[in-house]
Each structure stands twice: as structure tokens, then as C-alpha cells.
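subagent[fold] <- orchestrator: predict structure for attached chain, return C-alpha cells only, no commentary.
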Amino acid sequence: MFVCFGKSCLSAVRSRGNRRSPTSAGASPFSKVSIASVLFALASAGCASETGDKFIDLAGLAEQRSEVARLSSNYVQCMTDLRYTLTGKDGRTRRVSRMRGNVRPGDAIQATFTLIDRQGCGDLEVRLLSYTAPEPFWNPATAHLQRLVRSEGGVLPPGRHSLSLTAPECFFQVDLVYGAPIEVFAPPAVTFSAQGRLIDADNDGSAACECHPGAASACYTGREGTSGVGQCQPGTALCDESGLTEGPCDGQVLPTDEVCDGVDSDCNGIVDDAPECAGPVACEPAGSQSVCGANAVCDVSLAADGLVCRDITADKRVGEVCETLSECAEGHTCSGTRNGFLCRAFCSVDADCQGPGARCSAYLYGARTCSVSCNPADNSGCPAGFGCDPTRREDGADITLCLARAPVTQPEGGVCSDSSECAVEAACVVPATGPRVCRTLCDRRGADICAAGSSCVSFREPYLWGTDVEVGYCQPK
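subagent[fold] -> orchestrator:
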């Protein structure tokens, strides 16, 4: 439809039409006028062509008149039988002959048409396009803000064709056009109508677009201020076809609890700042414990592979059975073998240790501990399940150890590898000949407690416990 604003327009149209074909009686003066002729005449007269609810001024386009006329004439002659199938979001289908006023938000649009095989037509580029728009109608003042969403079609040969796409749900424009898409509209010149390429169009939409369909944008759903800190990273969200919502934020990395792995997992700018990640601390078990703070002391930890500050959950002292480090009091550690553990005191010199047989010996990670004072001759000083084992320090000093015994022990005279395999009153000794065996311990200076047929003999090097007891073992005669 064309609208004129003066007699010059009507005269121009009639004049151009009459030059092409005289009208017959009773017929409309436009009945024999081609669209190309009308476009050319309107452009010459400075008239307007209607596209939807708005008008585009064609004045000033004289340099394009010939091309517009040629293109429009070719297009009108080369396409026929245009139909649309519109399928709404509710699944209902509508069949119409034009898009204008019929396309709803979210409609699936299928345009079906025939390109005629005749001289002057040949292959034609036809496209079905969708745009997001700032308003639900065509407005030359804001047309430059429209953004192309989908372009379906291409250069097509003569024959029957179908092009399909889905209209956005936000404010949109859909166009069926000849030729390539326009990326940025610039009325009045750079529009499909002004270029004589517009076949059909419609504008609508339920709301302003929140995003551009199919466009990716950075996203992050973690706590404010954590994105880009530590392990936390933004992800990417894709705008869906509606233009109203974005999909999930894929690829983002959110804060997690610290796991002591050298990474700032909770994204607060501090690596491994959880209490359990404290790791080895420069502390001295036998010295001041102030570095460890309240209710914590310095201790040896195999798990932490060094000296650490640890909590105190009990107040066990030297010779008391323990299972964890925290059970032993300040200045003590839990030490032993797989068969059992006792609390032992840290020390710096022998004078720090109390009782016969208690000596300050090297332990782990530079720390030193006191051996437990017990009497090997009568197994006094050790808790149940532990035997008092006479041994010697690196420098040859006699010391005693409370050593946990295995659940099943060797009998008297049974072969052993260490005293934990012997009964609590025995030790694994090296006889004059043969392998190491379990022998009952005795006091060379006290009452003879050995079984009949045995006598209390000295170790190769006499072993003294205090000043009054010489520890020996029962040897068969």
C-alpha cells in the first residue's frame, strides 16, 4: 500500500502507469501498474511507502530509483503462492497469507513460497530474518538499536521452498526479504523497504528484551566480592530464544571449604586459612607453649610431618595409656608401638626425667622424650598389658621402656624379634648361643624367682636399675 501527500504523487503514479499500459473503462487506474513502477514514481515525487504502522520517507533517494524499480519488478514477477504456518507456544497452528499483524511472541514461523522459473528470474537470494527490537513496533528513530537474531535462507533456485525460525518472546521484528540481511538499520535509506527488498514483516513482543537470544555473557552466582579471587571464576550463560531469560551459569567456580591443598578454596584472599590447615608451627615441645595460644601445646605429629600446635582434650601424664596426642597433658606426647601407646614427657637433658631408668633420649623432628621409669626385674611401673623392657641408649646408658605386648606372645624360650612378642614379665634376650629368645627377667641381687632348673644370669654387660637392682634373665642350667 502506498500513501501520497499531494496531487503530484497521484499524477506521478498515473503518469507512469499510463505510460506502461492504458487503463480500460471502469478499471482502477492502478490495475495495470507494477509495484516497481509505483515505487519509482513515489520515490520521484518524494512520497512515502508504508511498512507496518510507520512510514519511511523515500525523498532524496533519486540515485537509487532505477535499481529499486529493477529489483522490485524482478521480485514481484519471480515469487508466487506465499503462505505462512504459525505455530504458537501452546502448539496450536495457524495458516495465514501474510505475517503483518499475525505473528505472536514465541511463534514458530514457516514461510513457504514458489520461485518462478522464467526469463529474468533465475536464482534469487531470499531470507527469513528475526531481530530483537527496543519497541514492539517499527520506529525509525530506534531502528538502529535492533539486533539480528536469526537469518534463514540463501540463494535459492526456481521451485517450492520453505524457510523457518522462531520469533523471540521479547520485542521483535521478523522480515521476509530479498537479498542479504541488514545488520544495522539506518532510516530512511538503509531499510529493506527503501531498498525495494521487503516482502513481508511484523513487529510484536511481550516485554523488553533482557538479553540477546543466543548471546553469551559472563555470569557468577557466588558471594559478592569473590569472583576472580582464589579459585573462584565467572562462568558463561547463554540467552535463550525468548530473549527474556538466560540459561544456567556454566563453567563458574564457586567458593568451597578450605581443603589444605595450597589453593584459596573459600576465595577470601588467604590460602588454606582454616584451622586444620595450620600445618607445622615453629614451636618447642619442651619450651614455652605461648606460641600455640590458649588450650594448645606443641607436639610431634607424624601426620603433619613435624612439630605442630595441637589441642588438649585430657590431662594424662607419664606412663598413662593414650590413643591420641590430645589426651596427653602439656609437655607430653603420646608414643608407642602398634600394640599400645603411653604418654611420655618431653625433655632437654636427663635431669628433666624422673625415676631410675628414665633418661632423655632423641625422639622425632629434633624433639627429645623421657623413657618411662619401671623395674624390669618385677615389671613394676608399667600399666597392664605393658612390660618393662631393659635397653640401652646410644651412649650406652641403661634405660627402661614400658613396651606394649602383642595379643599373643611367645612362651618362655620361644624365638622372638623384640620384647613385644614376649610375656610382660619377660624380654627378648640374646643368649650365649642361638637366636634371640623370650626369657623371664629377674634380679641378680634379690630372691631367685626362676623356675626349677633355671638360674638368674647376667646380661653380657651387667644392667643396673638404680643402685640396688642388677637385672638379669632366667637361663636353663
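orchestrator: received. Logging for downstream: Helices lie at 7-20, 35-45, 65-78. The mean pLDDT is 82.
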